[in-house]
From TrEMBL:
Domain of life: Bacteria
InterPro entries xrefs: NAD(P)-bd_dom_sf (IPR036291)
Protein name: NAD-dependent dehydratase
Source species of the chain: Kribbella speibonae
């Protein structure tokens, strides 16, 4: 298939492109060419900015995977240009879309965040991150109908990705693991490779709908025990909080989402121990986890 990837040269996007190429798809990248421009030298590139996607008006693709859609204005512009130029449009959304942060077991039909009155559609702020993802999902559905999928994910773990990088680094260098989150904090994540495979699957099979693309819920202490070997200690009171999760339970529901709809649509998840092993091996090979984006 002819696939267009918006972004595609950092973090999860690298895995998406690698998976697409491994499956024999013809990939085109659309980005500014500023991040890791040396990657994928054989892949066709269209240089451009999301704020001015006119360069996309000259092509047609069987599917689009949008890895860089943050600003509502930008996603709206891309959707307008690509509406009649692609088959299926898969959007990388977020678990931050849900209105409740405390309800366990939320499915994709749970209440979503509203758009704040008077909020700007052309500027990014963290308080607009969740509402922007909701608004982008809505405008893509209005534009493409059942030709679109929204993939809602949270922590993404693995090579080239920052999440849980401090644990990988600690295990790779035989120093204590640090976790400022409370031990009974519910937590979910997904291996970057599994998420990339799912994004590609939805796009090539033209499967519509929103999906909670997350792994099983663990407590933080249980997850830490799955990661560590017997000789590694866990520091539950580090000076720096890398997880930024409230201790009062006000965000617990965000990491107890129901992933059955995604599993039914084809999401497969590798064992947690394999994710940890592979991430640590990647760091031991001389790689450094990137800094979190925010």
């Amino acid at each position: 298939m002819k696939l267009l990837v918006l972004g595609g040269t950092k973090n999860l996007g690298r895995h998406v492109v690698e998976a697409a190429l491994a499956d024999g798809h013809e990939v085109t990248l659309f980005n500014r060419g500023q991040t890791n421009p040396e990657l994928f030298p054989s892949v066709r590139r269209i240089a451009g900015d999301r704020a001015a996607p006119d360069a996309l008006a000259a092509g047609e693709w069987d599917g689009v995977i949008d890895m860089s859609g943050f600003l509502v204005r930008d996603v709206s512009l891309s959707a307008s240009v690509l509406r009649d130029r692609c088959g299926h449009y898969t959007y990388m959304s977020s678990i931050a879309v849900y209105a409740s942060k405390t309800t366990p077991g939320m499915t994709e039909s749970a209440l979503l965040l509203p758009w704040p009155a008077g909020a700007p559609e052309d500027r990014f702020t963290m308080d607009l991150y969740g509402p922007s993802k909701v608004r982008n999902e809505s405008l893509l559905t209005a534009t493409f109908g059942d030709r679109t999928a929204a993939v809602r994910s949270g922590f993404v773990v693995g090579p080239y990705n920052p999440d849980f990088g401090n644990w990988g680094w600690a295990l790779a260098h035989n120093v204590p693991m640090e976790c400022a989150a409370r031990p009974d904090q519910p937590i979910q994540y997904i291996d970057a490779r599994d998420l990339a495979t799912f994004l590609l699957h939805l796009t090539t099979k033209a499967i519509p709908g929103p999906f909670n693309a997350v792994g099983p819920t663990h407590t933080m202490s249980h997850l830490a025990n799955l990661w560590r070997t017997n000789r590694h200690v866990i520091n539950w009171s580090p000076q720096e909080d890398r997880f930024h999760l409230p201790h009062d339970g006000t965000n617990d529901g965000t990491f107890q989402l129901d992933n059955s709809q995604a599993r039914s649509a084809g999401l497969t998840l590798r064992p947690t121990e394999q994710t940890a092993h592979d991430y640590v091996a990647w760091i031991k090979a001389g790689n450094i986890p990137p800094d979190p984006p925010h």
